[in-house]
């Protein structure tokens, strides 16, 4: 046995005889801190994360990085002894930020970082409502009172959005009834809690209409059975060289096998469901985006992707129970396509732990 090998064996033996040094480790409770409902006019709100040093050596908090300037942490760099606890104050500034919030914080301690999360809901002041949502539309406050599409040459399409705030004390389900054939409108989300924010997305498809000039369309928004009228205005124009009849026929059509995926009994594990999309049109379907606001939701599809006419694409939608914050799953996927009648498809993800 050569001398180098003897030295290595001796060093290994010494390491095995040395006492194990336990790394300092902070255990946080909770990892998701709910501020609840706060009023903007009350000013900054403070809540606390609690942490215990579960290790065997002292540890300290070096810094905290947040995902928004509205959130700050009051740091105490005093070493935390093994077994000791601390309270980390988190300050949220609601000024000019109405509605729900969901922010991330990263706490750094030596070479270790911890990911924490705060949520809550802000009831805005009347001043903020007037600035951000100046239009009163029954129980809603809106950014504008109509969709203005402007000039629409034959063969074109354009999407406009209105943003709203639910000023009522009730959860409201929004849908649109009896829409004109050349307009597609959706509410994202379609179920809006009190003090909740929503977006009305309207797409005007100019190849579905043959008359020209400026006109208004009446869109009927159904809010828990109450019909609220919203106007859409446009100016249809000629488009030299565009074959109107041909244009009508050459469109992709996205058909979703399911618009609601059930994840019953997902517990703490990962549960997977299959989502199938078929293109029944005669133009290539482009899927440009797949998004979810829920960190527990993932999709194995890589966008952008294309689907030829008559073909289908399958993707796995996964819910990671260990990351899901609630015992009742009520999430969604938004799938963006170039289907003029279905540009923003909402797929509901529901279930119980």
From TrEMBL:
Gene3D superfamilies assigned: Immunoglobulins
InterPro entries per UniProt: DUF1573, Ig-like_fold
Pfam families assigned: DUF1573
Designated name of the protein: DUF1573 domain-containing protein
């Amino acid at each position: 046995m050569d001398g180098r090998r003897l030295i290595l064996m001796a060093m290994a033996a010494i390491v095995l005889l040395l006492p194990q040094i336990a790394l300092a480790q902070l255990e946080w409770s909770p990892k998701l801190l709910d501020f609840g409902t706060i009023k903007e006019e009350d000013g900054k709100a403070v809540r606390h994360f609690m942490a215990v040093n579960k290790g065997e050596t002292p540890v300290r908090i070096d810094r905290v990085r947040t995902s928004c300037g509205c959130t700050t942490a009051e740091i105490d760099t005093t070493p935390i002894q093994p077994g000791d606890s601390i309270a980390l104050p988190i300050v949220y500034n609601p000024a000019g930020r109405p509605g729900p919030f969901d922010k991330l914080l990263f706490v750094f301690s030596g070479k270790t970082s911890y990911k924490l999360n705060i949520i809550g809901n802000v009831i805005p002041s009347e001043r903020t409502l007037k600035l951000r949502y100046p239009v009163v539309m029954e129980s809603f406050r809106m950014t504008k009172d109509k969709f203005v599409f402007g000039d629409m040459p034959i063969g074109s399409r354009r999407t406009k959005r209105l943003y709203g705030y639910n000023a009522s004390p009730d959860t409201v389900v929004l849908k649109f009834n009896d829409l004109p054939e050349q307009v597609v409108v959706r509410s994202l989300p379609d179920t809006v809690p009190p003090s909740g924010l929503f977006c009305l997305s309207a797409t005007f498809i100019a190849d579905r209409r043959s008359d020209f000039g400026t006109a208004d369309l009446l869109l009927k928004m159904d809010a828990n059975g109450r019909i609220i009228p919203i106007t859409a205005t446009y100016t249809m124009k000629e488009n030299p060289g565009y074959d109107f009849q041909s244009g009508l026929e050459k469109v992709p059509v996205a058909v979703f096998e399911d618009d609601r995926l059930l994840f019953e009994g997902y517990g703490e594990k990962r549960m997977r469901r299959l989502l199938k999309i078929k293109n029944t049109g005669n133009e290539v379907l482009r899927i440009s985006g797949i998004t979810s606001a829920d960190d527990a939701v993932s999709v194995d599809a890589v966008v952008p992707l294309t689907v030829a006419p008559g073909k289908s694409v399958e993707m796995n939608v996964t819910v990671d129970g260990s990351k899901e914050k609630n015992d009742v799953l009520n999430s969604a996927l938004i799938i963006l396509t170039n289907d003029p009648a279905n540009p923003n498809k909402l797929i509901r993800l529901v279930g119980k732990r």
